[in-house]
Amino acid sequence: MVPWPVLWLAIAVAVLAVVLAFWRGLSGWWLRGLTAAVLLLALANPALQTEDRQPLSNIVLLVSDHSASQKIGDRPAQMERAVTDLKDELQRLPNTEVRQVTLGDAPGDGGTLLMGALSDALAEEPRARVAGAILVTDGQVHDMARAPDMPAPVNVVLTGHRSDWDRRLIVKDAPAFAIMGEPVKLTLRVQDEGQVPADIPATASLKIAIDGKPPQTFTVPVGKDLQLPVTLPHGGMNVLQFTVPTETGELTDRNNSAVVQMNGVRDRLRVLLVSGEPHTGERVWRNLLKSDSSVDLVHFTILRPPEKQDGVPVSELSLIAFPTRELFVEKIKEFDLIIFDRYRRRGILPSAYLDNVKQYVENGGAVLVSAGPEFGSADSLWRSPLGDILPVVPTSQVLVGGFKPEITKLGDRHPVTEGLAAFGPKPKPGEKGPGWGRWFRQVEVKNRGGQVLMSGIDGDPLLVLKREGKGRVALLSSDEAWLWSRGYEGGGPQLELLRRLAHWMMKEPDLEEEALTASAEGQTITITRRSLSEGHDKVSITGPDDKTVEVPLTETEPGRFTATWTAPDMGLYRLKQGDKTAVIAVGPSAPKEFEQTIATPDRLAPYAAIHRGGVLRVEDGVPDVRTVAEGRAAAGRGWIGITPRHAYITKDLRVTPFLPAWAFLLIASLFALAAWLREGRR
Question: Region 566-584: what's the mean pLDDT?
Answer without folding.
Answer: 85
